[in-house]
Design brief:
Layout (H helix, E strand, L loop, with lengths): L1 E7 L2 E7 L4 E4 L3 H5 L18 E2 L7 E5 L3 H7 L8 E5 L4 E2 L5 E2 L8 E2 L2 E7 L8 H4 L3 E8 L2 E2 H7 L3 H5 L4 E9 L10 E6 L2 E7 L7 H11 L7 E3 L21 E6 L4 E7 L3
Parallel strand pairs: 5-16, 7-13, 8-18
Antiparallel strand pairs: 1-2, 1-4, 1-13, 2-3, 5-6, 9-12, 10-11, 10-16, 11-13, 14-15, 14-17, 17-18
Organism: Pseudonocardia nematodicida
Protein name: Fumarylacetoacetate hydrolase family protein
Keywords: Hydrolase, Metal-binding
């Protein structure tokens, strides 16, 4: 099943595809994620790919840093022995075609990070890795846009990860059965039409089940909570010469089975 928000007949609507085409749902996405609402019936819709909106706004976002072996090698850092967690603010979330706003007076090192996002489906606390996937509703494509200069200034990553518009999500959330193997999902990024990231979750140091179990050891996860699992090699800040998102550019990401985002980069209004 895939669930999304999209423009239908000029108005935003919740839509669901259970394999038979997109249909309008009368219930909120939160209830669909929690498994408390029936899949809608009716005639399938023809949706414009550009008409997909932010699928939902998670109240809690947990980022996982340094989780791809190839990215850690790019950075020249030591491989972590436990997941490195940081908060990503709900206010940073935007839709799959909304502008990423980069204020060059705030950051000159805004970077792309295409990621597999894990959407929790049920209350989760102290589960083992063997139990963890049963608590996952599904997955969503995410771009964990990061201000590298702010990260370096602060030492911790709240400012660098939490700026407004720095977390595009979508275009849809797919239930867990839509992804055949979460340990080998292709992830790609294009900047101004040039492929800059071309990797897979096969390079993850800690897999999805390990991450859900680890997070649940320390705090309760609720339905709709989102875990961002890290990004493959190819980030702009670790290139020579260094590259960054600047107004006038366009960043696109694609996670296999989860659709493609296309976000223009704007200066502040």
């Amino acid at each position: 099943m895939r669930i999304a928000r999209a423009v239908v007949a000029g108005r935003p609507a919740t839509v669901v595809d259970d394999g038979e085409g997109w249909r309008i749902s009368d219930v909120p996405i939160a209830e669909l994620i929690a498994g408390t609402a029936a899949v809608p019936t009716g005639d399938p819709l023809r949706l414009d790919p550009a008409g997909f909106l932010l699928p939902y706004r998670p109240s809690t976002i947990i980022g996982v840093g340094l989780n791809f072996a190839d990215t850690v090698a790019d950075m020249g850092w030591a491989t972590p022995t436990a997941p490195y967690l940081f908060p990503k603010l709900s206010s940073s979330v935007i839709g799959p075609s909304d502008p990423v706003v980069v204020d060059l007076s705030v950051t000159t090192r805004a970077d792309w990070e295409a990621e597999l996002g894990v959407v929790i489906g049920r209350r989760t606390r102290s589960v083992t890795a063997d139990e963890a996937l049963e608590h996952v509703f599904g997955y969503v494509a995410a771009n964990d846009v990061s201000a590298r200069d702010l990260q370096a200034q602060d030492g911790q990553w709240l400012r660098g990860k939490g700026l407004d518009t720095f977390c595009p999500l979508g275009p849809w959330v797919a239930s867990r059965d839509e992804i055949a193997d979460e340990s080998d999902v292709a992830i790609r990024t294009w900047y101004d039409g040039r492929l800059v990231q071309d990797g897979s979750t096969a390079s993850m140091i800690f897999g999805v089940a390990e991450l859900v179990s680890y997070c649940s050891t320390w705090f309760t996860l609720e339905p709709g909570d989102l875990i961002l699992t890290g990004t493959p090699a190819g980030c702009g800040d670790f290139r020579t010469p260094r590259e960054a998102l600047v107004p006038g550019g366009t960043v696109e990401i694609e996670v296999a089975g989860l659709g493609r985002q296309r976000n223009p980069v704007h200066a502040p209004a």
